[in-house]
Amino acid sequence: MMITVQKFGGTSLSDERGRRHVLRHISRERATGAGLVVVVSAMGRRGEPYATDTLLDWIDRNGRSLPDREKDMLLSCGELISAATLCSLLNREGIPSVALTGGQAGIVTDGRFGSARIAKVNPAKIAEHLADDKVVIVAGFQGMTEDGEITTLGRGGSDTSAAALGAALEASVVDIYTDVEGILTADPRLVGEARPLAVVSYEEICNMAYNGAKVIHPRAVEIAMRAGVPIRVRSTFSDSEGTLVTRADLAREKSGWMDRAVTGLAHVGGVTQLAVGTPEGPSDLQLRVFRAMAINGISVDFINVTPAGILYTVGEPDADLAIALLREMGFEPRSRAGCAKVAVIGGGMNGEPGVMARIVEALTESNIPILQSADSNATIWVLVSEEDMAPAMRALHSAFSLHLTP
Ligand code: ADP
Ligand code: MG
């Protein structure tokens, strides 16, 4: 039996209109004869009654003394409500269905409450229900440990649930339905001209996701990539095909962009830049600084080491601790809060001369100072001040003509 996994995000399920579209996609897919596994997120965004962020706010106000284990029990409820609601809607339409918790669906995780990792999936129960011709609805974002504890998977966890189920069931495709037309060349909230990409490779979207594109979780992409299951990111509210995420060679073949250097942009705000000067004479400064950051679980970025000193960035939530640690070691760090990381991403930029030159040119023309830069084979990052973030994204988007992306 061909199996399709569909995942519907929070905004897709939050109101009548969205849920009507969800039903439409389910009916259409079911009519193809495919076995259907539907992963759901909690309904709506912060402020709406059953949204995950609303539950988190509730915990903040009333449950600060709640242990992590019980916090996960509470957080898992949003998806359970979605799953049961969808089951009721499908019954009303005469479509037989069954709703399962993550644990019941066979998603086995480790015991890290709040950010559990999927260890394996036992798809036997899902397979039974599919054989009974039922649509299997699975609560996303959650799993269960070997000994029966409820866990949640962290931000974007429903994407991960869907990819893991797709891999375990050898699905022909995992369809991630959301509130945009696919993976766009940049976040449409910042760049009005952003365009949906027809095809991207797993690697490219992983790079975009790790650099802040919240449209899909990078762990989900990695799981699908390892299993060789294609992902489609598409809109709940339309019938467009959205973006196909597949192997680089297939992506190249399907899109016909042999020489696309830059695929898209991503951004992360809330970054603090730190500078530490080297004392006179030889020292083990670098070793001491980075060891202290590592021991304290502070992840560092944009690392520049020169004989004159070191320059690097940390996330804003870690900045105070990082500065305190540096002072404790006898340094006088200089810090610049309110920075943003802008990433220019493309599987085809490797060996393509002039990409950096175009970045510098575009930002200089817009009077945007580059505070730091870094690059890898498929990404170039620039650090800019946070108020320059959106203008920088727009300048780069037009410098690389991403609005012309087919
Ligand atoms: P869901 O609730 O469906 O999981 P998310 O909010 O997690 O939805 O993801 C969709 C959002 O991701 C879009 O509304 C969009 O603002 C944002 N986004 C950020 N970068 C991109 C991008 N490159 N392409 C598409 N959407 C993006
Ligand atoms: Mg999401």
Automatic annotation (TrEMBL):
SUPFAM superfamilies in the record: ACT-like (SSF55021), Carbamate kinase-like (SSF53633)
Record: residues binding ATP: 7-10, 178-179, 189, 214-215
Binding site for substrate: 52, 79
Biological-process GO terms, alphabetical: diaminopimelate biosynthetic process; homoserine biosynthetic process; lysine biosynthetic process via diaminopimelate; threonine biosynthetic process
Pathway note: Amino-acid biosynthesis; L-lysine biosynthesis via DAP pathway; (S)-tetrahydrodipicolinate from L-aspartate: step 1/4; Amino-acid biosynthesis; L-threonine biosynthesis; L-threonine from L-aspartate: step 1/5; Amino-acid biosynthesis; L-methionine biosynthesis via de novo pathway; L-homoserine from L-aspartate: step 1/3
EC number(s) given by UniProt: 2.7.2.4
Pfam families assigned: AA_kinase (PF00696), ACT_7 (PF13840)
Coiled-coil ranges per UniProt: none
Recorded family membership: Belongs to the aspartokinase family.
Free-text function comment from the UniProt entry: Catalyzes the phosphorylation of the beta-carboxyl group of aspartic acid with ATP to yield 4-phospho-L-aspartate, which is involved in the branched biosynthetic pathway leading to the biosynthesis of amino acids threonine, isoleucine and methionine.
Protein name: Aspartokinase
Organism: Cohnella zeiphila
Lineage: Bacteria, Bacillati, Bacillota, Bacilli, Bacillales
